[in-house]
Amino acid sequence: MGTRDPxxxxxxxxxxxxxxxxxxxxxxxxxxxxxxxxxxxxxSAPFFMYRGVLGGMAAFKAHCAxxxxxxxxxxxxxxxxVDDAMGxxxxxxxxADLPPDAVVGGxxxxxxxxxxxxxxxxERDQRQPKPALAVPDYLDAALDANPQARATFDGFSPSxxxxxxxWVTEAKSExxxxxxxxxxxxxxxxxxxxxxKYQK
Length: 200
What we know:
Blueprint: H1 6-14, H2 19-33, E1 38-42, E2 45-49, E3 53-59, E4 64-68, H3 101-116, H4 137-144, H5 147-155, H6 158-169, H7 174-189
Antiparallel strand pairs: 1-2, 2-3, 3-4
Helix pairs in contact: 2-3, 5-7, 6-7
């Protein structure tokens, strides 16, 4: 037998008037399709659990959203995946925006099957690593001429190194670049990151 969480009741009660019937309806459809579903709260929103996370719903200022945890693996009858950045059913502003109950229930049962079979959720988009930092020859030579500055630069995190490279290379004139290069070497010889003045 499934469980209902009083915190979900409170969440629905606190939601905007337009959202209450949407959230209530989605909740009932999930419980009908998965009688063993357990409710909980995650990230301050209602979630449905069955051998792992099935999905969750949320109310916003002008719309609601429903997300299946493994939505990219759940296919609709038209072959379309039910995965969308705004939630599996897009921006829901009324119960009429939802697919028929039988369709939503089918998605719930598909999500149940994935959990029963131990299928893992696909990895979320990973950030692509930034390309290797290109240090201009003149900065490299200046660092080699000052062992303390070189040690500091090499010990910096990639973001700190990028700050110095960008500051020096983005100078508009040769004179400005020379001044910045001299200042950069001086600060790095003292062990200072580029934005040291703003650190507490």
